[in-house]
Amino acid sequence: MRFFDLGVIVVYLLGITWFGAQFRSSQKTLKDYFLGGKRAPWWAIAFSIVSAETSTLTVIGTPALSFGGNFGFLQVVFGYLLARIIISVLFLPHYFRGEMFTAYELMQHRFGLRIRKLTAGLFLILRALAEGVRVFAISIVISIVLGTGEMASIALIVCLTLFYTFEGGMTAVIWTDVIQMFLYVAGAILSFFVILEHIPGGWPHVLEVAGGLAKFQIFDFSFSLTQEFFSRTYTFWAGVLGGCFLTTASHGTEQLMVQRYLAAKSQAEGRAALLASWVVIFFQFTLFLVIGVLLFVYYHDTNLSAPNPPDRIYPEFIWNNLPAGVAGIVIAAILAAAMSNLSAALNSLASTTIMDFYRPLVSSRGGNVPSESRLLKLARRATLAWGVILFLIGLLARQWGPVLEAGLSIASILYGSLLGVFLLGLLTRRVGETAAMIGMVAGFVLMLYIKFGTSIAWTWYVMIGTAITFFSALAASLFAKKRAQNG
Fold first, then answer.
1. Which long-range contacts (CB under 8 A, 24 or more apart) does 423-428 make?
2. What CATH number was assigned to the domain covering residues 3-404?
3. Is the pLDDT at 444 greater than 70, yes or no?
């Protein structure tokens, strides 16, 4: 066991936990705890968006994609840019009308309280399941480093992240995200050069071997309407359309991301943060895909057997081959990605629980709304409760397959219903609450069938689910209108 590397990792874990906890004194109201007091600069929010979007799934899952395939995943990333433009034009103006705490308040303004609770509840389920996969992903790294079991590894990372999120709220989330994002990008750049040094012939040799096997191929413009085409995960059409719908859903309707825009000082700063984040995202994904190709060439030249599962390739190489101290820094960077995403999830789950369920429930019963100090205590308790839930889901996620695609496919099942109903709210005026709820149920049921009963790739899930939700609600609305006229 390399004690110097372990020392680096321990210092990082304790340092970032201490840093995040220092923001407790500024948490006096719900606006402070859930929106950072709307004081964060746009560039910090942009980095926080990146941290929440990428996570450990990107750090350890993306190299595995190019190790076994090519650069086709970047087609999805181009869809991310298109989605950000749509969100900036269509969604943000509505979120900055009045003072909102969650994305689902918008649904109550358009449809009613029932649809607010339904969309908020769907988010809680979606984020808890997807975050469980991310929690398990980091246990892979910790178990490699410490040799601990997966349960102990999951418990360690959840407890440390829970502590500073509990104390510092959204302010701690944003500023620890900034530090952690710089750390894991720096760690990836460092590992790139170290891995390259292990390959005789350097970069020209990598180009020769990987280029000859089409490892750098990005685009696949093939198109057909056959079942086989829709079963292929990374084509240009699946990537751009699928990535666009996926990101419009995740960044436009999920509290995890919307909460960051709402923390901006203005709509203009929220838009700047969102668009700037794509530049960093593109750089990150490209970097990790290149690292995967480097590892492929290394294993190809040495005739070594690759680790199983493939998600272990990057962290295991780092720990076994990088110099003392360097390995500790890069592993700490991977832990940074995990903690930044987990802290954001905890805060967004707590905000939705309090603002979309608890406070409306108290108001509907005619009771006095609790004071700010009481609500702040309840928000911290909700954060603690969600920490326990995510720990348990992380244990279950061990059986769910490759971490990157497992996380994306789980989220994609539910995103269609969420995005479909948000588009109904923003683009229509005649569709009522009941019809919208019928559309959501129809979209969700169909996606369950597609996930478990077909071979359609996850990149198509959100587009299909959104279309079914949207048009089912329109049909239900027209049916109800005709029935009312005939009745």
1. 423/466, 423/470, 424/469, 424/470, 424/473, 424/474, 425/106, 425/107, 425/110, 425/111, 426/90, 426/91, 426/94, 426/110, 428/474
2. 1.20.1730.10
3. yes
